[in-house]
Amino acid sequence: MTFVGGLRSDLGPAGVLTGADAAPYLTGQRGLFTGEALAVVRPASVDETAAVVRTCASAGVAVVPQGGNTGMSGGAVPAVADRSWAAAALGRSRGEGGVPGDGGADGRHRPVASDRSPGDDGGVVEKPSIVLSMSRMNRIVSVDPDRWTITAEAGATIDAVQQAAAAVNRLFAPDWGARGTATVGGAIATDAGGNNVVRYGNMRDNVLGLEAVLADGRVWNGLRALRKDSSGYDLKHLFIGAEGTLGVVTRAVLRLHPATPHTQSALAAITGLDRLTPLLELATSCCGGDVSAFELIPGVGLERVCERFGLARPLGTSEEFCVLVRLASAEPVSERLGAFLAEASQRGWITDAAVAVTDEQEARLWAIRDELSPMFLWSQHEHGVKLDTAVPIDLFGAYHDEVRSLAADLAPGASTYGFGHVGDGNIHLYVLPTSDDQVAPFLAVREQLQERIDEATFAFGGTLSAEHGIGQLLRDRIRPQKPEIEWDLMRAVKDAFDPQGIMNPHKTLPPA
Ligand code: MLT
Ligand code: ZN
Hints:
The protein is of the alpha+beta class. The chain contains 16 helices and 18 strands. Zinc ion binds at residues 176, 194, 420-421, 428, 467.
């Protein structure tokens, strides 16, 4: 029986997709990365997941875990370089040793992971892959309001967890536009952030325990619900942000917070990026711990989203930037929000504000926020330099100016467009052509511009990967952020967890 045929007989037809059925799982959301795989494998339980990983380990097949496939860095699709396995993958059947295939019989052996150190691929990729989609493991396992936790399978969506929490008067705080598709497992893999990090932290801060299938198929059950536990290394943190390179997260115990039934947001036009730090400080002092989001909205993005959806522009003035602030509490928040806006206006930091007074208006402001990505606004977005940077928040204005001035020098026709989570120092910053005639001149300088911006980001003490992971996109570019000893330590961890190098190879760690 062939390798894929064997998996199909183990998991049934719904558990293994090939051909056109598999195609949507092989391309990442931005369309930047398309990989190849022997099959997309969809286990329905932890035991099935463990059995699949064991089968792959004994056959030397790489495992690429995938959640909702909404990732931005190509971490959840097979690495582009993995294509070199394709000829070999046609050669061998399951159980014969060497490289497995799904038909054909050229009998050639290609080296598999055990032929070299997993952290040191030297750019050579000769392993076939499967995509391990967690989409059938999407159950909420238990809702435990007394413990302030929810236990969910990796394929449960963020939205499903939020709703399950709301049903027991609790809040699951991680939240971003793709909430309906993004999954718990994917969010853990990338240490996702989103709109509420300023108050509740990122995914790392909202996971109390997890379970993972290790690279040899053993199951580690670390589903603990403890707030305090100083009993040695906290291994769950190694899986958070590891992008599936150490094992496959199958279930997690997620932390809940008190519900915040009173929520109100305001969109305010600000008089400059240097106002951000004092505005956040003012919001915090006027509204205490109620500030649950503090997002940067570029004026041009606001215009385009309103145009696209036929919405009236919510503000009377046209500043270059706005902030979208949300207060959330057990008590009504309008007075505090009003006091903050009045004080900000009196100090000349904002020129106009739209306050949502109905649920519909509230939803509309956040719908505008969710549609701000250039991906939805300019067809040329894929040619742009795209950054998911974080810098120390007090340096944010200076950093933005620096990127804009680099862009003006090197790519004068291009637009600098930044939006997102400035309250926690994270911005999605693009430099991109916004018309077809700008594309060719932009592409001529794109690489140089990207290098210069990367250097500037590190010089500001920042990262290129605030919440979208490293994946394939940043694997080489991220290296200068950290001393080599730090990458060496991570490679040693990788070697310890995955000596065969089958877990999501060619992602996350820069090659040695
Ligand atoms: C967002 O905050 O909207 C997302 O992280 C998506 C993006 O960077 O485009
Ligand atoms: Zn974001």
